[in-house]
TrEMBL record:
GO terms for cellular component: membrane. One of its GO terms (molecular function) is monooxygenase activity. Heme binds at residue 125. Keywords: Heme, Iron, Metal-binding, Monooxygenase, Oxidoreductase. This is Cytochrome.
Length: 189
């Protein structure tokens, strides 16, 4: 939401996508997600810039192996810096910018090695699909039901307390106004 408030053009595009594909008669649901590619782009781009678990979980090598040309002995604790990978200028064009549309040109399943918000391989997050769906449905419902406005003129404070899990340093404060048709939608909850 913070990134969308700083990028109203993305917020408008997302709202238009939801209005066009879901309409005003019902709240969006799980079966709509396939018709909302820009919503997925927004969620992906947010997870790229602010991966929830920036260093993933510590992994331990069960035998001698090699990673990126480095010899890793058995029983070494290995941390993967997803945050750095997601902002690597050798891999991403304008890595510091919020550009959800970049994911329109990326096949996450194929190029997943550069985008790892859920880790990768056998120890990757088993809840990835559920996590993506939950976040997409919550964000989609916020946008479908409310008009959003900033309460400050400056950019949103995107500082985070980055320890194990990334959390916003200051909670989001914004003005939300129920959209005309939305009382009907919310009464369906
Ligand atoms: C947006 C939501 C979520 C994010 C960003 C996320 C991210 C992650 C990450 C980065 C890891 C570590 C992967 C690695 O070290 O390679 C992980 C592991 C894990 N996640 Fe999630 N997760 C999410 C939602 C969920 C949900 C909904 C569940 C369960 C219902 C779940 C269950 C787990 C479990 C059990 C592991 C440990 C897997 C293992 O060590 O084998 N996660 N998650």
């Amino acid at each position: 939401m913070s990134l969308l408030l700083d990028h109203p053009e993305a917020l408008h595009r997302l709202r238009k996508e939801i209005d066009t594909n879901v309409g005003y008669g019902r709240l969006l649901n799980d079966s709509d997600l396939a018709k909302l590619p820009f919503l997925r782009c927004v969620v992906n781009e947010t997870l790229r810039l602010y991966p929830t678990v920036p260093l993933l979980l510590p992994h331990c090598s069960s035998e001698d192996c090699s990673v990126g040309g480095y010899k890793i002995p058995k029983d070494t604790i290995l941390l993967v810096n997803a945050w750095a990978m997601h902002r690597d200028p050798k891999v991403w064009d304008e890595p510091e910018r919020f550009k959800p549309e970049r994911f329109e040109a990326i096949e996450v399943e194929r190029e997943g090695f550069k985008f790892v918000p859920f880790g990768m391989g056998r120890r990757a997050c088993p809840g990835a699909s559920m996590g993506l769906r939950t976040v997409s449905l919550a964000l989609g419902a916020f946008v479908q039901c409310f008009e959003w406005e900033k309460v400050v003129e400056s950019n949103m404070d995107m500082n985070y307390n980055s320890k194990v899990i990334m959390q916003k340093a200051t909670p989001l404060e914004a003005m939300c106004i129920l959209r005309q048709h939305a009382d009907r939608l919310l009464s369906q909850l």
